[in-house]
Amino acid sequence: MGIEDYGGGQGTQSDVLVVTTNDVPGFRVEQVIGEVFGLTVRSRHLGSQIGAGLKSMVGGELKGLTKTLVQTRNQAMDRLVEQARARGANAVLAFRFDVSEAADVGTEVCAYGTAVVVARV
Questions:
Q1: Predicted model pTM
Q2: 17 vs 118: CA distance, rounded Å
Q3: Which of the listed residues 13, 24, 58, 63 has the most CB atoms within 10 Å of its CB?
Q4: Rounded Cα–Cα distance for residues 39 and 97 (Å)
């Protein structure tokens, strides 16, 4: 049921193709399984908040917070792929991220999309 040699450019090797588009050239959707998501909430530790506050006074990238957000997004995406795989999908279409503050204690990151089974045309 996996996608062999789809030629995708995902950063990680996976048997589940994840795309932001509604279709995949060269493939047809054989079955729509439904919405899948991966969710995580991360709090910032005091040190990074103080560092970010000081950095914001002089300008520039907040590298510690950027690193944390990248890790958080990757974790949310990994959970999305796990859920899609568990439901029998080999692709996720219309993939998106949603990021919001969670009760002023952290950042909520949700990766979501539509789990499908695709086959080469």
A1: 0.76
A2: 9
A3: 24
A4: 10
The answer to whether residues 69 and 97 touch, using CB atoms and an 8 Å cutoff, is: no
Strand pairing category for 91-102 and 17-18: parallel
Question: Is 7 part of any domain?
Answer: no
Q: How far apart are CA 55 and CA 59, in angstroms?
A: 6
Is residue 56 assigned to a domain? yes
Domain span at residue 76? 17-120
Query: What is d(CA 8, CA 6) in angstroms, rounded to the nearest whole number?
Result: 6
DSSP states of 39-101 as a string? EEEEPPPHHHHHHHHHHHHH-S--HHHHHHHHHHHHHHHHHHHHHHHHTT-SEEEEEEEEEEE
Token reading at 60: 């520039």
Answer yes or no: is 49 within a domain.
yes
Domain at 26, CATH number: 3.30.110.70
